[in-house]
């Protein structure tokens, strides 16, 4: 969908001479490392049915699909970790995702949580290892791609076609984040109490005067009050 968004943006652009030539000297070693890790990890899953290897492949894939915010991959994570592989319950997934919103870099914190939960059936050591792999694997693709793209970025921005495609890609990313919110709301249940908490949370976030950890704490307290008989 992200690629389609970029293509549509290019095709509908009114700019002329979209592919003007610029001088580029790509640091290929980072892109090669990115590709080699992806290929090797996929091959390993084909020859070795191991939970940790599967988590490495999954979270590495989540990492290179993150554009515009980690929430973009939340529906995919939910589908694979909860519905397909049943590593955790829907409640465990949603609770963990809610808790980490008060932490710096919530997506990386949540990845460590989710991978640890996925590996918990294999003992404490592998659970800790799974959490480490989840946090590192989702972070690694972005690091490699940053080192690959950053030296080129000033020149890439001069290519009108690239600038046009980014408008479409970011629009699709925004749409995916919105859909992610709806999916999480659906999994939690479209009830009046959830809607009230949602609206109050949105109002607090828009006010930009209350730190995220305090908002998370207030939502947890609200959850206890709502569920209290």
What order do the helices and strands come in, and which of them pair?
Blueprint: H1 2-11, H2 28-47, H3 51-65, H4 74-84, H5 90-99, H6 106-118, H7 124-156, H8 160-188, H9 192-207, H10 212-227
How many discrete structural domains?
2
SS-based class: mainly alpha
Reported for the largest beta sheet, the result is:
none
State the low-pLDDT regions, or none: none
Shape category: globular
Instruction: Give the overall average pLDDT.
Output: 84
Q: What is the end-to-end distance?
A: 44 Å
Number of helices: 10
**DSSP summary, beta strand count:** 0
Approximately how much beta-strand content do the residues carry? under 5%
Radius of gyration: 20 Å
The portion of residues assigned to helices is: over 70%
The H-and-E topology, N to C, reads as: HHHHHHHHHH
Architecture overview:
The chain has helices at residues 2-11, 28-47, 51-65, 74-84, 90-99, 106-118, 124-156, 160-188, 192-207, 212-227. It has 229 residues and is an all-alpha fold. It has 2 domains: 2-11 and 23-190, no CATH class; 191-229. Helix 2 packs antiparallel against helix 3 (51-65), helix 2 packs antiparallel against helix 7 (124-156) and helix 6 (106-118) runs antiparallel to helix 7 (124-156). The longest helix is centred in the middle third of the chain and has 33 residues, at 124-156. The radius of gyration is 20 Å and the shape is globular. The termini are far apart.
């Amino acid at each position: 969908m992200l690629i389609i968004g970029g293509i549509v943006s290019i095709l509908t652009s009114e700019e002329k001479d979209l592919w003007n030539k610029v001088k580029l000297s790509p640091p290929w070693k980072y892109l090669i490392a990115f590709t080699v890790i992806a290929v090797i990890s996929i091959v390993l899953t084909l020859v070795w049915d191991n939970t940790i290897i599967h988590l490495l492949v999954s979270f590495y894939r989540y990492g290179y699909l993150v554009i515009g915010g980690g929430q973009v991959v939340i529906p995919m994570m939910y589908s694979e970790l909860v519905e397909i592989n049943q590593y955790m319950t829907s409640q465990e997934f949603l609770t963990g995702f809610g808790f980490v919103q008060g932490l710096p870099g919530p997506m990386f914190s949540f990845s460590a949580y989710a991978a640890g939960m996925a590996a918990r059936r294999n003992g404490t050591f592998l659970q800790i290892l799974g959490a480490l792999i989840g946090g590192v694997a989702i972070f690694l693709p972005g690091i490699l791609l940053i080192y690959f793209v950053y030296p080129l970025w000033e020149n890439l921005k001069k290519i009108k076609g690239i600038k046009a495609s980014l408008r479409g890609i970011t629009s699709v990313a925004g749409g995916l984040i919105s859909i992610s919110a709806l999916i999480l709301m659906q999994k939690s249940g479209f009830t009046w109490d959830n809607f009230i908490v949602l609206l109050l949370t949105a109002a607090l976030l828009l006010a930009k005067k209350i730190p995220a950890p305090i908002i998370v704490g207030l939502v947890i307290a609200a959850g206890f009050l709502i569920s209290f008989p």
